[in-house]
Specification:
Chain B: This is DUF2063 domain-containing protein. The complex is a heterodimer of chains A (303) and B (249). With 303 residues, chain A is an alpha/beta fold. Chain A is built from nine helices and twelve strands. Chain A has a single domain, classed as Divalent-metal-dependent TIM barrel enzymes (TIM Barrel). Chain A starts with 18 loop residues before the first strand and ends in a 9-residue tail after the last helix. A three-stranded antiparallel sheet of chain B has the order 2-3-4. Chain B has a two-stranded antiparallel sheet with strand order 1-5. Classes of the chains: A alpha/beta (303), B mainly alpha (249). The interface between A and B is large, with 45 and 38 residues.
């Protein structure tokens, strides 16, 4: 556990009812043509790691008018291996360029050595929730927070495999990470629902409610919403972010809001992208859900 | 199994290893990562894909991914070694120019991601009477390369959806038949990477400029009176190839 946590700085926070969408390359032109009427935009950090070029220039331009949330997909904070310096260096450069409102990544592993050489798995790979995993996750999160000089947030992932040897349930594991690193949490509601479904949980609503209820609500800095797709006969749900948020997703979102109160909310859509307008429509649905839960006044609180 | 072994073995499995982890649904991850690997190479090597076709490209990309594996957290960096790797692949027997075409794709992609210097107009005031004491400045972001194949024409033709209908395709075909190659200058127009043929003489001149040789040494003492040089320099400045001048000692 770091003894320098007191030095971590966070940027001014978004209003708690802020709603954002993911910005992907297919929508760059839309955003350049007209500053989006959205509270914030989320991008995948690694897509902007280049020294220069169109993506970097565009993001710098957009960040002048719209707050940016940097969401990493590759740090692999649950890896036994330390996140490489080169990765941290590129992330720090991006953070300095963009001055994001949030820096986040996932609770998963990506790095490992094979025959002594370090490789990257290219996906959000699940970890067993053991003391050993906890130690490595805490070390990597601490290291990243110290390197960036700011708090980061960790997101719960979809796991399509189950481990026999887990010593914690996921929520307890996350709670322990927060206690030891003072990082924030991103609560991905779709990932929770996908895990409940794939794990054939008898009462998914109850599973989600218990999960959320056992997290430290003050640690939750953002909520993620997305769609998922069933595949094959077994109807395994895949968290592919390729469809709108399901009706069950919206209902769960409202229940979560009632439990933890308003939180900045992101609608993610990464594959089979809709038009920019349709995507903004999903953000409007999130605002409407907030209004149903909190009423009109609360959703107009100032930054 | 300890955590470190689990993580190593899982990655080996993702990279095509035959030993499957004793975990139900592990192949979901392998499938997902393979799709991403193919997509990343498609993005960086559009001409190679257009040349060999989508199905052959997918096979090629998966062979590369399984053999070389992924070493960086950024998919945008995945595949920088692809051009060299292709040389040893059986497909190069059939398409001997494929590696050089991949190299050109790679240069174009790199130039689009690199720091590209702006032209510093005022710096050209440094060009005074004594051409031996000043040099031109080459943009550090651009790329030059020589190929034994007509790579620029092939690259140009395959930007079209119907490559065979283009003049570049016809030219490439003629040059392949005669065993002639091209030199490529890769630069950026705005954010877009561009490639064009340049004569060997220009490659030599630009290499000399890159080596910071004086204007007198590279072009001769009387070059400022040569209108051809003035036009050449204007063209190079317009493309952002030459970005300034400086005095040297």
């Amino acid at each position: 556990m770091s003894n320098r946590q007191g030095t971590l700085q966070s940027k001014p926070e978004l209003k708690k009812t802020a709603v954002g969408v993911g910005l992907r390359s297919e929508h760059y032109e839309n955003v350049l043509e007209q500053a989006p009427s959205i509270d914030f935009l989320e991008v995948h950090s690694e897509n902007f790691f280049a020294d220069a070029g169109v993506a970097v220039d565009l993001l710098q331009e957009v960040s002048r008018s719209t707050p940016i949330s940097l969401h990493g997909t590759s740090a692999g904070l649950g890896s036994v291996e330390a996140v490489p310096d080169d990765y941290l260096k590129k992330l720090k450069r991006l953070v300095d360029r963009i001055d994001p409102i949030l820096v986040s990544d996932h609770l998963c592993f990506t790095w490992a050595r094979i025959g002594g050489r370090l490789f990257h798995g290219g996906d959000l790979l699940p970890i067993p929730y053991t003391e050993d995993s906890l130690l490595h996750a805490v070390n990597n999160i601490d290291r990243m927070q110290q390197y960036l000089g700011r708090q980061i947030a960790i997101e719960n992932v979809c796991a399509y495999i189950e481990f026999d040897q887990s010593e914690f349930d996921e929520a307890s594991f996350l709670r322990e990470i927060v206690a030891r690193t003072r990082c924030g949490l991103i609560l991905d509601i779709n990932n929770l629902m996908v895990n409940a479904r794939n794990g054939q949980v008898a009462d998914p609503d109850n599973y989600v409610d218990r999960y959320v209820g056992s997290l430290d609500p003050f640690a939750i800095t953002e909520i993620h919403l997305a769609g998922s797709t069933p595949v094959a006969k077994e109807e395994l749900l895949i968290d592919d972010h390729a469809s709108p948020v399901s009706e069950a997703g919206w209902q769960t979102y409202e229940r979560v809001l009632k439990t933890i109160g308003p939180r900045p909310t992101l609608v993610e859509w990464d594959n089979n992208l809709p038009s920019w307008r349709e995507l903004l429509g999903e953000a409007t649905k999130a605002r409407k859900a907030q209004r149903r839960v909190f009423g009109r006044e609360c959703t107009h609180e100032s930054v | 199994m300890n955590l470190s072994d689990y993580q190593s073995q899982f990655l080996e499995f993702l990279f095509g290893g035959t030993r499957k982890p004793e975990l139900h649904n592990a192949e979901v991850y392998r499938f997902g990562v393979e799709v991403k690997a193919v997509r990343a190479l498609e993005h960086s090597y559009p001409t190679v894909r257009a040349l060999v076709g989508a199905a052959a490209f997918d096979d090629l990309a998966l062979d590369y991914f399984r053999m070389i594996r992924k070493q960086s957290g950024d998919w945008g960096e995945f595949g920088w070694g692809f051009p060299s790797w292709i040389i040893s692949h059986r497909i190069s027997d059939r398409v001997p120019y494929l590696s050089d075409v991949a190299r050109l794709d790679n240069h174009v992609a790199r130039v689009e991601r690199s720091q590209y210097e702006e032209v510093h107009v005022a710096s050209f005031n440094a060009i005074g009477e004594d051409l031996a004491s000043c040099s031109l400045i080459l943009n550090k972001g651009l790329q030059l390369f020589r190929s034994m194949h007509p790579v620029v024409s092939i690259w140009e033709a395959h930007k079209s959806e119907t490559p065979k209908d283009t003049l570049s395709f016809a030219q490439a075909k003629r040059m392949i038949a005669k065993g002639r190659g091209q030199n490529a200058l890769v630069y950026r127009a705005g954010w877009k990477g561009m490639a064009e043929v340049i004569p060997e003489r220009d490659v030599l001149l630009l290499e000399a400029v890159r080596n910071q040789r004086s204007i007198a040494e590279v072009f001769g003492e009387e070059v400022l009176r040569d209108t051809n040089f003035t036009h050449w320099l204007q063209d190079m400045i317009a493309k952002g190839v030459i970005v300034g001048a400086k005095t040297i000692h």
